[in-house]
Amino acid sequence: METALQVIQLTSSLLLIVAILLQQRGTGLGAAFGGEGNVYRTKRGIEKKLFGATIALAIIFLLSSLGVVLLAR
User: Fold this and answer.
1) Which tens digits make up the pLDDT trace of 20-73?
2) Structural domain boundaries of the chain?
3) Which contiguous run of DSSP H or E holds residue 58?
């Protein structure tokens, strides 16, 4: 059971990293020096699905991490 949780944790962490890196945002160092100015905008299409997937992956990662910790006791 612990091995399965560790595999889920590893997989979800890698997918979470990819999902975060795929999100394009106008914030960052470029915005500080005159980058894109529209801060508030609506998410549409694939951007909205990617945002939802990122939240789901973060929840899966959190629950699997808690499971690994609780089983290690």
Assistant:
1) 998 876 555 555 555 555 566 777 888 899 999 999 999 999 999 999 999 988
2) 2-72
3) helix 46-72
Interior angle at CA 51, CA 48 and CA 52, nearest 5: 90
What is the chain's Cα-based Rg? 16
Which two tokens mark 15? 């997918």
Mean pLDDT of the chain: 84
Cβ atoms within 10 Å, residue 12? 21
The C-alpha atoms of residue 23 and residue 51 are separated, in whole angstroms, by 8
Angle between helices 2-22 and 46-72 (to 10 degrees): 150
Residue whose C-alpha is closest to residue 57's, from 21, 20, 23: 20
For residues 36 and 64, what is the distance between their CA atoms, to the nearest angstrom?
A: 37
